[in-house]
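Throughout this chapter, every protein is written as a compact record of paired, labelled lines. The reader may check this reading against the record printed directly beneath this paragraph:
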Amino acid sequence: MSAIVRGAQLARMLNAWQVAVGVRGPGGKRPEYVVLANAVRGLLIDGRLALGVRLPAERELAAALGISRTTVTAAYRELRESGHVSSRRGAGSWTELPAGHRVGTSGLWTPSDDAGLIDLGCAAMPAPPELAAAAAEAVTDLEPYLCGPGYQPMGLLVLREAIACAYTARGLPTAPDQVMITGGVQQALDLLLRLLVAPGQRALVETPTYPNALSAFVAGRARISSYAIGPDGWDADLLLSTVRAAQARVAYLIPEFHNPTGHLMPAALREKLPPAAHAAGTDLIIDESFVDLALDPDVAAAMPPAVAAFDRTARVLTIGGMSKAFWGGLRIGWVRGPAPLIARLAAARVGVDMASPVLDQLVAARLLQRRDTIVAARRKQLLVQRDTLAAALRAELPEWRFVLPRGGMVIWAELDAPVSSALARSAEELGVRVAPGPRFGADGTMERFMRLPFTLPEADLVEAVRRLAEARTDLDRPRRHSWSAQTVLA
């Protein structure tokens, strides 16, 4: 069943479309229906309106916008002719893209050997200074485990206890048997999809979203439906109606400092999600990779409860890991969920990689003992780097727009034109690797957006923006580019 966007919801997305009515093109003033069609088309191309969504009836949208039904009818006809809408008489109209406009999103980030390259494709930081001491202590903790086989699919009890205590401290009572250790957050998601989603079953994802999560869904041959996140974050009514209508097997959401938009989901919406998912027969996979990285002090002091805190029907599965707040080279992640499902997940995991490395788990347990110190330092560093990147963007690329994230590691920038992929290729010629918007969606939209992490030193961020500005200027010049091969990113 397709998701439905109501007239009032689409009207909110189109709140500025009338401004363009008076704009004159080469042939004079454009008809109102053309402007409306262009506005809807722009929402699709930017990824703000998901594909496969049923549009409101002509009469409903006309009433919501306060215009004539004739204008809406003509706009829908214009969208059908351009390939952005398909209609069936008596059934409705659905959003789509013209044939040949689909861009895939797959693959993992690969590093470059070019020492001069400024890599903004990866949102991750170097290891904290405390890692060396934690590793040395972990070696001394290893001896009791050496007499056993070393295979513990659930993970070491000492680490599961530490993670369970962290959840409990956040107001989400958790026992160690509700936690399974994995080889990073990506493996946590992959294992859940193997257990829960059969090929051909529907999965609901946000758009934009984390590219490697999309890769996992594609690899599992899930049928992907999407919900579009707007510039202000989640539209509660639209998200809940999409969850109910999609009736997906799972829904993958990133409520804490969403990757890549940086939004933080409000508590009121978190409370409504589990009941809506239960009614639709959908399990929620909640990715908390950035949950520790609240940058503004007021946000850090009043973080909303975990989505799982509102779960009464065992529908919420939470995944997290050490990669963002600690170090990506420490491949430790976890799944928190109902104990019976975690036991099933551990049994399924044996067919993949048996267990996580014992020594790595001991290092993670030691790092978690230093969590407060490490996280505080990370937040302080990221706050400075965020403000540095934002200032550089405002100075060098004032036409670009963005919402300053209050946590996380990235800025989701709206460009002055739909040139994200071309700009990424041009920027790499100048020694900057960036993540173009289409990599964060399953359908080739979002050419007007680009993800920019602020995880590099301040000088590198300033220089990267300077080169981006130069690359953007070059795109407007009639010159021949020697495009490099498209790279993959994380």
User: Anything to note?
Assistant: Residues 19-28, 100-112, 479-489 have pLDDT under 50 and may be disordered.
